[in-house]
Write a structure and sequence with these properties.
This protein is mainly beta. The protein has a single domain, classed as Beta Barrel (Porin). Helices cover 0% and strands 60% of the residues. The protein has an eight-stranded antiparallel barrel with strand order 3-4-5-6-7-8-9-10. Strands 1-2 form a two-stranded antiparallel sheet.
């Protein structure tokens, strides 16, 4: 006796006009090509409400001056390699003991391109107003933080960074060089918005 085998028909609700729908992909595991939920392409960071603390030490004598700071930072760059950002930044600090403006280049690294943890360094020039005078000099910054995805193209997180600067040939209020050198050390914790 012969058996008649009927082919199994697909459910009507799983077939569209363009054929069966492809399986849904995980939104956090792309990064094979330029894609959502991946740290690649254009990078834009704005850090605001940065609260920190700064200390000045002058060559004029022993002792130091400290004050709280309020900071802001803007950085823009690109991703030559997934998870590695290279770009430029501009920042400013307002403090009771003196204000500063800095500009320079940075590298920011996400060990997991789909993740949020990152760390980086920056080399800058800084215009620093201190209790001992005003001057321009080199600065270096180290940073680390976590950015949590909010949508597929932007994230929000916390950024911690520390900056050391050492301007030479400070100028006094009259504009004359006073021959002093000052070291500045600052630590900051800020809220960041990242488009990347």
């Amino acid at each position: 006796m012969a058996l008649l085998v009927m082919p199994r028909l697909a459910r009507a609700d799983s077939i569209s006009a363009d054929g069966p729908e492809p399986p849904a992909r995980s939104p956090r595991t792309p990064c094979v090509t330029t894609s959502d939920y991946c740290h690649d392409g254009l990078y834009f960071r704005v850090s605001v409400l940065g609260l920190g603390y700064r200390a000045f030490v002058s060559s004029a004598g022993p002792g130091s001056t400290q004050s709280a700071t309020l900071s802001a930072l803007v950085a823009i760059g690109g991703t030559p390699v997934k998870g590695v950002v290279v770009g430029g930044l501009l920042g400013s600090d307002v403090a009771g003991a003196g204000d500063s403006v800095q500009a320079g280049a940075f590298v920011d690294w996400y060990p997991a391109p789909v993740g949020g943890w990152h760390t980086g360094i920056a080399l800058e020039g800084v215009l620093l107003q201190t209790p001992y005078g005003t001057g321009w000099g080199p600065a270096a910054t180290v940073m680390a933080g976590y950015d949590a995805w909010v949508r597929s193209w932007y994230s929000v997180g916390l950024l911690a960074y520390g900056t050391a600067a050492s301007p030479e040939n400070l100028h006094d209020a009259s504009g004359a060089q006073n021959g002093l050198r000052v070291a500045s050390i600052e630590g900051t914790l800020a809220i960041s918005l990242v488009i990347h």
